[in-house]
Amino acid sequence: MATAAAHQTAGTPAYGAQDGTAGPAGDTGTDAYQRAFDAAVAADERIEPRDWMPDAYRATLVRQIAQHAHSEIIGMQPEANWITRAPSLRRKAILMAKVQDEAGHGLYLYSAAETLGTSREELLDKLHSGRQKYSSIFNYPTLTWADVGAIGWLVDGAAITNQVPLCRCSYGPYARAMVRVCKEESFHQRQGYELLLALSRGTPEQHAMAQDAVNRWWWPSLMMFGPPDDESAHSAQSMAWKIKRHSNDELRRRFVDICVPQAESLGLTLPDPDLKWNEERGHHDFGPIDWTEFREVLKGNGPCNEQRISQRRQAHDEGAWVREAAAAHAAKHTGAGRSGGTGATRS
Ligand code: BYC
Fold first, then answer.
1. Cβ 20 under 6 angstroms from ligand 1
2. Is the CB of 152 within 6 Å of ligand 1?
């Protein structure tokens, strides 16, 4: 919420008591808080960490932001796989920067989740034990160099289509994190497009490699937007709370419409014989998505699910000494501050 004062001037009670027991003067219980929350959402104001919010709103945000954060850090793996094999120093530097950006996105998102009262340790534990999801897309392998281009163009393109509306999410810290993430994702999408264009205009073998990558990544990219609207468990409530601004199908249609002319400029074909412009609907029609495959990937049966999680667990275990050293360093400095030390012991 923008400010408590803004609510008072709007005739709604000020926020602050997270347990909802101390209502505004003359009002007790959570009802007044609920009304103020509803009014803030209706007025397109931002809900901030110290504002009262319904438990289910908080839980939905933690679920979505955690899944998003996990996707960013798991999403580093398929591309990092190509850093040592990038075909030039320029491509290597670009790819390293991109993969580092994904780590940064994970950090912004875990921090946003922490503002909701959940710790990063708890979320990582849920990821490692399979109790929280990450995006289905990262369970597919990167078989050739062209896959790096296809991920940038299609996967980051889909991510931007999904995430630009999240910059207007009702929860302030998530919305603000998305602004920076989207700027960086735009760079990622362009590097993918430029990489595919170079391959497409290269030798016949390079063109074929680019086409093969697009063939394999197209359908999984469409699945990134989530199940069809009539099977989306959370969409209606998330849209009512203005966490999501558009339905899964709406964003998927928008993405297809964006990609068709881009594929033409790339000189590549999208692997869907049913893809055609529908004048009446003002959108492209496209063929059926294999939702059985999507459900299997979510159940853990995609081509790389096991590999992704075991590599993540291994990286976490191998990083234990860094976390321990950081905690010891922080404790040393906090201790020095508390004891009124002169700072002489600080490094
Ligand atoms: N994969 O009711 P629904 C990136 C789950 S990272 C896996 O429609 P909702 C990048 C869903 O969680 C991009 N699970 O859910 C990084 C729910 O399960 P639970 C990641 C999926 O939340 C590195 C169930 O299916 N982006 O760009 O209303 C390199 C029912 O679905 C998927 C985000 O995370 C999926 N694709 O809508 C390059 C964006 N789809 O929780 C690039 C933020 C659905 O009930 N998230 N499920 O067990 C969102 O916008 C929404 O959460 C979704 C799903 C649109 C994904």
1. no
2. no
